[in-house]
Design goal:
With 60 residues, the protein is mostly helical. Helix content is 40%, strand content 0%. The radius of gyration is 18 Å and the shape is elongated.
């Protein structure tokens, strides 16, 4: 996890647009690492090892 100071040193507009006393939370935070179980599940789904929809929807 990054500290607020580390995030403010990034070059994105989100962190440079507002003064230091404002925490910009208008969008999902993409400056933090993805949780390993989520990354594993997404990788498996993209590789065709998992389903991305319930089986009942796949038969329609």
């Amino acid at each position: 996890m990054f500290t607020t100071e580390e995030l403010r040193r990034r070059q994105s507009v989100k962190w440079r647009e507002f003064p230091p006393d404002v925490l910009p939370l208008r969008i999902a935070e993409m400056d933090t690492p993805l949780a390993e179980p989520v990354a594993d599940a997404l990788t498996a789904a993209v590789a065709g090892q998992g389903r991305t929809a319930p089986s009942s929807r796949l038969r329609q």
